[in-house]
Amino acid sequence: MTFIDFNFYLFATLLIVAALGVITARNPVHSALSLVLAFFACSALWILLEAEFLAIVLVLVYVGAVMVLFLFVVMMLDINIEQMRKGFVRYLPIGALIALILAAQMIWVVGPVGPDVLADDSLQQAVRHDADYSNTKELGRILYTQYVLPFEIASVILLVAIVAAISLTLRRRPKTKYQTPGKQIKVKRNDRLRIVKMDAEAKE
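-> structure tokens emitted (204 positions)
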């Protein structure tokens, strides 16, 4: 076993343990922290696959921004954990069925890797590049040419999700002062400004 193989099995095991901690932790904060650990393990696996840009983006975007937002939302909403646990047994068969379907799809997409496939020189050379190869450039080229339409659709979906999240968490308090942009636009000069004419006073 080489050093790369050892790191792969190490971080893969850490990723599986952290993913199990996300769904089995009793405290939502612990689940969020387990998800952070899973993201770090996944970024390490991407570094082993020579996808440094994706690994950095995963740490900066998901760990640095999204997970911090999750922690704030979990602490701010004050979720009733006991009430959520009551429906766990009821929805367990549906969750197990969905998990089996997802596992079957992943196995069908990835497929088994036999010794004949590993012996193919073209497959071994497919992931090896020169020193001046930039996976960031190649990712941008594919993303903004071949997959530009799915990228734009995903952007619109994320925008709708942001608007929906803001509308769901918006709480209006009667004593809170807030501004209405529509009323501010309709304001005229005479409503805010009054010109007073005064006689000039002579200096003694």
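Residues 114-126 have pLDDT under 50 and may be disordered.
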